[in-house]
Amino acid sequence: PDSTCVLLDYMGILMSDSPLSWVSSFARFVRLLRMVRIIRLIRVIESLLDSALSEAVRVMMRILSMLIAILFFNHFMCCGWMIVGKYGPTDTGQHWLNVVIPLATEDHEYRELNAVYQYFTVYHWYLSQMSIGNEVIYCFNTSERVYNILGILAGLVMSSTLVSTLSAIMIDLGMAKNDQKAKMRTLNHFLLQERVNQTTCVQIRKQVLERIHRSQRVTEQDVPALELVSASLKKYLRGQIFRPHLVTHPLFNLWTSLDEGTVERLCNQDLSFVFLMPQDDLFVAATDCEEVYL
């Protein structure tokens, strides 16, 4: 993405000084393409949302982001079509802006109409290219025809990508819902089988439903990719994770300055995270304690 942004910057600078009007207009279009920087921002936002939102909300956000991406893509193609119509080369002496359309009792060319009407007409036309290829606007020269062909191909790719992505999202969401329903059916079957009283059943179902929809913290055991990390790098990673929690205790904070090696062994061999849910018990009376809580 960085190299693409730099290339677009250089192209915009070089073409903006051209004496040809259509080249200068194309330079402005190229500068618009620098908005590909937004892709990196979107990825950062998605990573933050994944850790803060529920699965259903994340699905809705992904669908909304895809629709916004399609709207922006159509905007750029619409701007390109306007440039081709105004400044593009023609081998017939005509452009699509020369088309005469009836409005009320008079006929007008597209170029005689205001810019807002032109923009939304082209936007509507190009949005239809993604589905049925509606010929609201016609091509009158080779450059417009080539641009239209490329637009139809791009629309085909975008629409197929949208459909496949939405299908995958809905399948994943459906599988997650089915898994939750299967767990609840098994729980209800177990409670009925053991003839648990109704009050206890209600409490158990309520707690399970609350926890089944709660986002779970990801632990080291939940990340298979860490198995591919070298031992030295994994050792450094565990030190980065556990050291801030270890030094909160005065004894271990002092120990860090006295014996760094022992602290590293503690981080890599003896420390782990335990994530408790509401109403969980950290310690139970009259039981042996085998661990220390920091």
- The succession of helices and strands, N to C, reads HHHHEEHHHHHH
Radius of gyration over C-alpha positions, nearest whole angstrom: 31 Å
Query: Could you give the distance between the termini?
Result: 43 Å
**Uncertain runs:** none
- Report mean pLDDT, rounded to a whole number: 78
Secondary structure category: mainly alpha
* DSSP strand content: under 5%
How many DSSP helices?
10
Major sheet characteristics: 2 strands, antiparallel
- Helicity range: 55-70%
**What is the number of beta strands?**
2
Explained architecture:
The protein is mainly alpha-helical and 294 residues long. A two-stranded antiparallel sheet has the order 1-2. Helix 2 runs antiparallel to helix 4 and helix 4 packs across helix 5. The longest helix has 52 residues. The model has no long low-confidence stretch (mean pLDDT 78).
